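Practice problem: predict the structure.
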Amino acid sequence: MLRTVTATRYVMPLREGGSLPGLMECDDLGTYVVKFVGAGQGRKVLVAEVLVGELGRALGLPVPELVLVEVDPVLGRAEPDEEVQDLLRASPGLNLGTDYLPGSLGFDPNAHAVDPHLASRVLWFDALVGNVDRSWRNPNLLLWHRELWLIDHGASLVFHHDWARAASAAEKPYTAADHVLLPAALHRQEAAAELAPRVTRELLEAVVSLVPDVWLEAEPGFDDPDAVRAGYVDHLLRRVEARGSWQP
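Answer:
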């Protein structure tokens, strides 16, 4: 289960992302990069963040801790930025926080080396979840204490934006040409042999159970949040089974 914390102060907006995440202090004395349910990209970005981030962590990939952040819109009253005020007013209740890594550096493939085994595992994982946002233009990788960390997975699981066609997406090839770690991913077959058997129904069910019901409610074509969860599990299992058609 993800920890739930309560936001106590909005520190500053982070304008690098299209959804206007914000840096917030919380009642556990931690600081988190918070993505808001009321942002234009919607709740499915938060669902993807949880599913992909926690699946990656379960497979041993370096993902910062994720927490559920309770936000009271009253925090926005003192904000001079009307866009921030509007966003906080539209995001009462549960939002998603990623542990803030102070002093971290954005990954630069021309300046930073990465272990080929780790690069291969990240590439295979991104192909599994259809992450289209790990290019050299926008790596979504941080270096913190000389270790690589994976962030920002909201652009993954593209199939859940059109459930009616999700079945056909299970075998969709992954385009790895622009992946920032492709040149370093020299052990792709070994990575596939290691990770694929670990993506089991039990693991996927455990991961999808972490998504709050409120982010899965009223999904067209599904009776309830548990049915949506089953949809994610079934799709990802089909994708693992069809990996011969998409593995980079």
